Amino acid sequence: MRLGIDIGGTKTDAVAVDELGALTQRVRLATGFGHDAVLETAVAAVARIGELTGLAPGGFQSIGIGVPGMVDTASGQVAHAVNLGLEQLELGGMLAGRLGVGVRVENDVKAAALGAYHLLGLTGTMAFLNLGTGMAAGIVVDGRLWRGSTGIAGEIGHLPVDPQGVLCACGQRGCLETVASGSGVARQWPTDDPLPVRALFLAAAEGDPAARAITARLAAGIASAVRVLVLTVDVGTVVIGGGLSHLGERLLGEVHEVLHDWERTSPFLASLDLPGRVRLVPEDTPVAALGAALVGEN
Amino acid sequence: MRLGIDIGGTKTDAVAVDELGALTQRVRLATGFGHDAVLETAVAAVARIGELTGLAPGGFQSIGIGVPGMVDTASGQVAHAVNLGLEQLELGGMLAGRLGVGVRVENDVKAAALGAYHLLGLTGTMAFLNLGTGMAAGIVVDGRLWRGSTGIAGEIGHLPVDPQGVLCACGQRGCLETVASGSGVARQWPTDDPLPVRALFLAAAEGDPAARAITARLAAGIASAVRVLVLTVDVGTVVIGGGLSHLGERLLGEVHEVLHDWERTSPFLASLDLPGRVRLVPEDTPVAALGAALVGEN
User: Fold this and answer.
1) CB A236 to CB B150 under 8 A?
2) Residues of chain B contacting residue A231, judged by C-beta atoms under 8 Å apart
3) Domain identity same for B190 and B86
4) ipTM, 2 decimals?
């Protein structure tokens, strides 16, 4: 049995996965804010899964943690996890000290990529396109995470696609993330609605021209991210995940429409079958926790 | 001993490579135009290297051919090699019939990527950014060519980066290739000079404002290609090759200038050390023929 934990900005998912990779237990906790509270959240998650499975921490074949921010997978150190209130934390080392066993720490998007790959039974090459506050992709090649030479493979949210675009937090202009992410939508469509992107799509469906323009830019940005992933790595599948993926078929439909529009003007793009490569992550499945349980296995 | 041939639009390079990967013989022939002439060129290249090494075709450990266009590496079929006058040719099968031994056929940019990787003694991940008539990259991972799921990995010349850009032959607008390739320069700077890009750089050095603008767009396009390759695959090295690379340090200097400019406004980009990842392919080395000799070995 393996244990996987995904520490998100507000919620923490924890799962137990059996030797066949099937999810056998699942719990959800509120995530604490700041160094101590994040560590306690992880400890509590291990304890809860331990109760459900009857296993002590040392009884699991492996324990893996997915966490936002920059992760040094060798040392288990996490940096710049702003949503968790972490500037820098020796999460791997401190958690190992508390549990008495080693843990593996991985960036949450990369963990989700691995989880989605296994959950969907994919083979070959896949990208998990995470549309959360920001945009980033996790790339899996033949069942293994592709980290690249310096660990920044898949950071496609900071590829500029429009010299006339708005300034991005990264210091560049017109990055994909400025139009195709939660923060990109929030900037263009300020609202008190607790589900801002859903509110945007509702307004667009009701014919609001500003909302229509923003959703069109969002869909075009996602389609551009798919094109980037195919024309560089040539991934066979792009799985759309992250907070924006909860829009489900409505979002996928808009993206498909953009991709089909492109095919009408470009025989080259039409030959790549971009629409056929894109799918949504399964709804209500803790893919990042599942992937965290599998991290390091391969 | 291995034999490698690179069939270019005007010249064909052929090399013999010993078991340590060192180049021992090299010849250059004019390339014929059209199906029959291309096949005869390849046969003549094998004969010339055979004379120099004293080996019959069957005496080589392998024979590999690099050729422009779409290559089916399994069947040895070449399609859409416009510069060679080939719509479709069973190059692998027909050449094997003529020589009495099997040959391996690979796209010339991919062959050059493999050749440059070995010639430069690289490890890890590299992209060979070919700036010829068009723009495309060959990606090498741990000494092996990365082809992707459908063989189009590295076709970054057709990534649009400017919605206001010119129409590309592929049907899209503002592709990298429209500004950062031989054809892109030729469109903007029509000239009878036999070395049009050299003439452009000379005019720019003499202060011609139009030439300055075109070289600036060229350098920015190359820098953008480097950024794409690093933010997707995270290659440790980008080797600039192809016809435009003959501009040498002048071109590399312009590209470095763009990358350093970006670093001044983006701490994110500065953290990636893009300038430190870029280098030129060694001058006057038949990297594609060398790579063709190594194709299939790994």
Assistant:
1) yes
2) 152, 154-156, 158-159
3) no
4) 0.95
